From TrEMBL, chains A, B:
Top-level taxon: Bacteria
An MF annotation (GO) of this entry: DNA binding
NCBIfam families from the UniProt entry: HTH_metalloreg (NF033788)
Keyword Transcription regulation assigned: yes
Membrane recorded as keyword: no
Protein name per Swiss-Prot or TrEMBL: HTH arsR-type domain-containing protein
Keywords: DNA-binding, Transcription, Transcription regulation
Lineage, top ranks: Bacteria, Bacillati, Bacillota, Bacilli, Bacillales
CDD domains xrefs: HTH_ARSR
Source species: Saccharococcus caldoxylosilyticus
SUPFAM superfamilies listed in its UniProt record: Winged helix' DNA-binding domain
Residue ranges of domain HTH arsR-type in the record: 15-108
Pfam families for this protein: HTH_5
Length: 108, 108
DNA sequence: AGCATATATGAAAATGTGTTCATATATTCA
DNA sequence: TGAATATATGAACACATTTTCATATATGCT
């Protein structure tokens, strides 16, 4: 009975492979400027693929590929309206972390 | 006078290049399993380069390269004791975000 | 100075990532 | 069904990242 009585969670346990994988994937999603810009846009409201491409001056294909990446991690979701897919964010925790880090970066 | 009266910071402003760069670099630091393991280790206490290499079964050179990466972003610092360098974390905000995300990943 | 130990560094190799291009699929409408 | 529009997909390319290997540098000790 020596360790972690009422200490902060996450310290003192070791990192199992699965946790490590999830954490690294999550941060990888946030490590690319294009994906950050997409998520930041989606933090405001839903947008279609073409709207995202236009707003950010990116190719339709590039946006689609990145959305698939984000979708696989369940960071975004979409709803269909005819042939148009409206994407929106789908992970409040991750969006919150992105927001925190943007604020932190801005405060210099 | 239409937007962002008392809304959350970081929304509604656009992302300037510099902020985008800092944010993406920060997350890139956290996106690699080796660096995550190093930072996680350093969240507990300071360790020398060789201690880190042994604890994590990594080559001395690989650890040194990653520490330089983290040092450039001012995420870690070191103190010298003879020929030994003891590294420790140096950014509470980033360590907090790492901790949050590990907890989040563990809760599935 | 010479030797031992701890760490850093540069280049090469192996692997991973992001964009583009061409094309496929899905939906709507006439 | 056929045309039009929106999005997805796969392959190829360019570029970036991570590790390894060999070697350099720094410090302390005798």
């Amino acid at each position: 009975m020596e360790e972690s009585k009422h200490t902060t969670p996450s310290v003192d346990k070791d990192l199992d492979e699965e946790t490590l994988f999830i954490v690294s994937q999550t941060f990888k999603a946030l490590s690319d400027p294009t994906r950050i810009r997409i998520l930041y846009l989606l933090s405001q409201k839903e947008y279609s693929v073409n709207e995202i491409a236009e707003k950010l001056s990116l190719g339709q294909s590039a946006v689609s590929h990145q959305l698939r990446f984000l979708k696989n991690l369940r960071l975004v979701k979409y709803r269909r309206a005819g042939t148009t897919l409206y994407y929106s964010h789908d992970d409040k925790h991750v969006m919150n972390i992105l927001k925190q880090t943007i604020d932190h970066a801005r405060h210099h």
